[in-house]
Amino acid sequence: MQDCLAPFHELIAGWFRERFGDPTEPQRAGWPRIHAGEDVLIAAPTGSGKTLAAFLAALDDLVRRGLERPLEGTQSLYISPLKALSNDVHRNLEAPLAELKVYAAARGQAFPEITVATRTGDTPMAERARLAKHPPHILVTTPESMFILLTSQSGRAALSGVRTVIVDEIHAIAGDKRGAHLAISLERLDRLVQQTRGTKPVRVGLSATQRPI
Prior knowledge:
12% strand
């Protein structure tokens, strides 16, 4: 069987093997396609590792480029239809990043600075102003907050270099007006990034219960 961790940076691959052992089926199937720049929908049961399937590929890209030069602007955008879930993912991202830093330090290897922040309707104005001045490399947000960011000059500047967009719990919005609204925002983001980088960001959709696929 082909090693699906082979394309990853040695720090990412080594940490994953030490922390989790063998990849799950959604990870084995998803990583090659995400690395190839394909848009992907990962539909798998809860607890199958689909969130890490999306994030690890994005982290690998951040680590590789961050080791070459300091990262600027938001590189990965995680969109959740639920504000509470956004906070959970923020915590779930901070832990792997901290572990990766320790893993790299133990081996005498450098690890780039990678920042994470959450932007929802509950984010205080002072924090929104801070994020506008210093956009995080990974932004966890909601469809509505993403729309607001795309309507402001500072928000568009921060999102113009996004490389990966992860949309979680797509079944919660796929068939309603929020989903239609998000679809328009995603198209606007594609156009913005294409004008800046010449290529669209990779989209990764996640769902445990989307029917029909």
